[in-house]
């Protein structure tokens, strides 16, 4: 994010995105890629370089790769052992390999680095990002919304609130955010250590190797390279501190020494903040001309590295649907399918982070300790491990879409294909953000009239993909499939008209 405050000069735009966190920037990229006039308004005058969300989950990695966005992120990722994710920091790694993915391990990268890459790409694609410009007023009407940003106003066809857990837009519209308040407060700090005891983890291994309970604290210390560490801690006695009380270096130093001994010395604090384990979700992700995505729509305890991933996946689901709506190409109901698909996906994450919250209780009772033992044993069973790996990685997510073929609504693994141009991967076909009609039988009629932004790709594949012809949405989920190309007449056209573009 470039420093400095820009001035809102536009009086109209197609979409305003409130908030330049990972969700807002991902959405801005998707909209700009589709040619939608997109204005991002961000409250902060410059990015806070805080690690915060520290990882990219396998499904997010697949999606980013499909837009060519993974490579620049991998170049910035922290070196990490190839080790699976975790459930409630239990000591058995989650194994994503049964889900047929090229990215079975979470990628360690500080959130601000993800934001930097996404912002650069969104701007290159044509989005405008204004810093130091907080949304302070929202007036929706039948065909648009007037957004006030610290004085000046801009009229947009749609506003998407990606302005985080304390969403101003949500509050301005008076929308309830039902759920549970947090019971534990914790501190997240990016710190420099000038001396380390043998208790300090030396490498970024499995989460269970980074966590420790001692001296009345629970803590997680993740080495990010050199003397930089991401330190998360809280008191096991649940002593509550007001979320707005500033974090002090004395407080951080005391926790460090209590957990990692006197041989561990705090050098500097780069930044710090407090967070809680509150769980809340909006009832509807759409309120007329205003949509909600990311933390503005759902919050949950930061267990298992979910929030940033959920937000990026919201943006992937919403981007192409909103673009089609703004450009008059969308079939009826397409924009509302965003809520229908992503609300359950969010609810599922709230559900399993609630379970993790119990298992990872900072001050576990005997019962919780017993539960942890049982769960640890269960994680050693391949079937259970696969189930939880699928949930936390996002790889098992599918959508309930109309259609009889078993692949309908499923994600496609990134298969090797051979097209006219030579060998390639399925993921490379989605760089432009178009839908793909993948003809593996080579018999889809060449004169089939496809709408714009649906590409016909004929290819051979040595893997069995489970169908001869697949219609895959821009976000990588199958919306129609057939075992023979004989079925590719009216049924295919109806699937395109129902899922992607009106005739
Ligand atoms: C301790 C901790 C650890 C975490 N670890 C992980 C992890 O490992 N993996 C993971 O996936 N997630 C993790 N998360 C969660 C993750 O950080 C969030 O889910 C993520 O930041 C959500 O992104 P967002 O873009 O929706 O919202 P945010 O990142 O909150 O971005 C919202 C943006 O909107 C701006 N804004 C606010 N109000 C206004 C306004 N009125 N006008 C304009 N702009 C406004 C804000 O300044 C901000 O830039 C963690 C969170 C915490 C607290």
General description of the model:
With 503 residues, this protein is an alpha+beta fold. It folds into 3 domains: 12-82 and 101-178 and 280-359, FAD/NAD(P)-binding domain, CATH 3.50.50.60; 185-276, Alpha-Beta Plaits, CATH 3.30.70; 416-499, Glutaredoxin. It has 11 helices and 24 strands. The protein has helices spanning 22-33, 58-66, 70-76, 111-125, 168-172, 249-260, 307-326, 336-359, 366-379, 382-393, 490-499; strands spanning 12-18, 38-41, 55-56, 107-108, 128-130, 135-141, 144-149, 153-161, 179-180, 185-195, 211-214, 217-225, 228-235, 265-276, 279-281, 286-287, 290-292, 298-299, 416-419, 422-425, 435-439, 454-460, 469-472, 478-482. The strands form 5 sheets. Strands 1, 2, 5, 6, 7, 8, 16 and 17 form an 8-stranded mixed sheet that branches. The chain has a 6-stranded mixed sheet with strand order 20-19-22-21-23-24, with helices on one face. Helix 1 (22-33) links the parallel strand 1 and strand 2 (38-41). The protein is globular, with a radius of gyration of 23 Å. The structure holds flavin-adenine dinucleotide. Flavin-adenine dinucleotide (FAD) binds next to helix 1 and helix 7.
**Could you name the CATH class of the largest domain?**
Alpha Beta
Question: Beta-strand level of the residues, as a percent range?
Answer: 15-25%
The number of helical segments is: 11
What is the strand tally?
24
Gyration radius from CA atoms, angstroms: 23 Å
| Biggest pleated sheet | 8 strands, mixed
> Quick check: average pLDDT?
93
Going by CATH, the architecture of the largest domain would be: 3-Layer(bba) Sandwich
């Amino acid at each position: 994010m470039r420093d400095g405050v820009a001035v809102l000069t536009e009086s109209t735009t197609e979409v305003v995105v409130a908030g330049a966190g990972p969700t807002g920037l991902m959405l801005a990229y998707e909209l700009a890629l589709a040619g939608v006039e997109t204005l991002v308004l961000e409250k902060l005058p410059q990015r806070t370089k805080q690690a915060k969300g520290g990882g990219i989950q396998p499904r997010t990695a697949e999606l980013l790769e499909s837009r060519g966005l993974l490579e620049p992120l991998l170049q910035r990722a922290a070196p990490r052992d190839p080790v699976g994710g975790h459930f409630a920091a239990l000591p058995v790694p989650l194994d994503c390999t049964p889900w047929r993915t090229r990215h079975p391990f979470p990628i360690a990268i500080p959130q601000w680095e993800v934001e930097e890459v996404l912002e650069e790409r969104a701007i290159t694609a044509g989005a405008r990002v204004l810093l130091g410009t907080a949304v302070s007023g929202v007036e929706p009407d039948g065909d648009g919304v007037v957004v006030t940003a610290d004085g000046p106003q801009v009229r947009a066809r749609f506003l998407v609130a990606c302005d985080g857990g304390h969403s101003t837009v949500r509050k301005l519209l008076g929308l309830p955010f039902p759920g549970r308040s947090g019971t534990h407060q914790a501190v997240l700090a990016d710190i420099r250590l000038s001396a380390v005891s043998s208790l300090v983890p030396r490498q970024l291994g499995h989460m269970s190797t980074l966590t420790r309970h001692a001296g009345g604290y629970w803590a997680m210390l993740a080495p990010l390279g050199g003397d930089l560490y991401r330190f998360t801690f809280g008191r096991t006695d649940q002593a509550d501190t007001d979320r707005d009380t500033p974090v002090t270096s004395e407080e951080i130093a005391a926790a460090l020494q209590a957990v990692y001994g006197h041989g561990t010395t705090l050098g500097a604090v780069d930044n710090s903040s407090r967070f809680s384990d509150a769980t809340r979700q909006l009832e509807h992700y759409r309120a007329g001309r205003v949509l909600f995505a990311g933390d503005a729509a759902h919050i949950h305890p930061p267990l298992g590295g979910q929030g940033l991933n959920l937000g990026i996946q919201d943006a992937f689901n919403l981007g192409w649907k909103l673009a089609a709506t703004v450009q008059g190409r969308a079939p009826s109901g397409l924009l509302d399918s965003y809520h229908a698909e992503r609300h359950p996906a969010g609810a599922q994450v709230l559900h399993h982070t609630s379970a993790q919250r119990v298992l990872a209780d900072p001050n576990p009772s005997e019962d919780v300790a017993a539960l942890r033992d049982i769960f640890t044993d269960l994680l050693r069973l391949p079937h259970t491990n696969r189930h939880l790996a699928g949930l936390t990685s996002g790889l098992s997510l599918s959508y309930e879409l109309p259609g009889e073929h078993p692949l309908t609504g499923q994600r496609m693994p990134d298969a090797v294909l051979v097209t006219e141009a030579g060998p390639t991967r399925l993921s490379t076909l989605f760089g432009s953000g178009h839908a793909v009609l993948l003809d593996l039988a080579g018999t889809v009629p060449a004169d089939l009239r496809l709408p714009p932004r649906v590409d016909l790709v004929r290819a051979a594949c040595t893997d069995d993909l489970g169908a001869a012809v697949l219609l895959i949405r821009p976000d990588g989920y199958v919306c129609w499939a057939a075992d023979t190309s004989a079925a590719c007449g009216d049924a295919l056209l109806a699937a395109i008209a129902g899922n992607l573009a009106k005739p």
